[in-house]
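Our consortium's second objective concerns turning raw sequence data into structural hypotheses that experimental partners can test. To show how far this objective has progressed, the report includes one record in full. It was chosen at random from the queue rather than selected for favorable results. The single chain below, 346 residues long, was entered without modification.
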Amino acid sequence: MKGEFMKTSNNIEYWDLIAKYYSDECNQQEIDELLKWKNENIDNQILFNQIKEDLEIINLNKSMNKINVDSAWDKLRDRIQKDEQNMPIIEEEKSRFVAFAAILKYAAAVILLISVGFFSAKIYQNITEKNGMLEFASLNDLRREIVLPDGSTVILNINSKISYPNAFALNERRIELDGEAFFDVTKESERPFIIETNDAEVKVLGTSFNVNASIPGHKTEVFVETGLVQLSRKRNGDEKILIKPGNVGVLSTNILTKEKNYDKNIVAWKTKEIIFYEDNLKNVIETLNKVYNSDITCENQDILNLRYTSTFRDQDIDSILNVICLTFDLKTENLDDRIILIKHGS
């Protein structure tokens, strides 16, 4: 951890700018300056993504929208000027005061990052760099949002990882994915965005879509939210399909198909909105296990056949299970890491 913060100290002048960027307070000139700095080297990219995670961990992103850094410091300057009118300050003392104020400003940022570091240390342990490639890995209880060198964003599901070069090539933007991730790709007509999985290759120019390469049986599933996505075999580019918004493409050992998506919860792991409409509890349990990385089980077929309708938004798994249990007069039992649904009286 000490080494991480030693590196960030060299970039202290950009902390405020990054904070303003994530609170939507940067003008275009500041955005261009920040992105140019971010793409200069791998350390800057790591810091850029780490600060976003730090802010999310301590729930500062909402409160930051109410804070205007420049405005706050303008007010401080005004107060200094008023004090000067009431009590003369020689130039040396004034410069010392301003310097001290700046030190306090950045010291607060240091304290913030170090404090957050204790909570997010395990995040940093999952960032590696090798031969000019960055690898970001999510943990089994943490999803991650990453900003790529071209400004595209990636939301990694739990137990997933991506790797990409410090700087994309001139003719393409290529990354590798192991697991599941949602992509919002910056459009560049001259430089396609390509995702490699074990068996598949996904190619786009600029769109939003979900790629799941963690399905048993070496399957890769691509759900398109906007734009147009090409899915092909990694070792046979001639076998390919184009997937339109609202459709799902699936590549397996034997087939490459596309169809309309009927799964209401295909990206619920990202949105945290789960919709059930006359779903049997077997499907409800499967969805909850996927979204929350939980291990809910039930061996009673009568329970699994029960039909359930409800919508949940940003609720934890315990709250959802409490509602389901109240609805059907069930209870839960915990066995190691498993949650077992059973009838009352059983």
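The partners drew two points from this record. Residues 123 and 324 are 33 Å apart (CA to CA). The domain at 268-343 is CATH 3.55.50.30 (Phage tail protein beta-alpha-beta fold). Both points have been shared with the crystallography group to help prioritize constructs.
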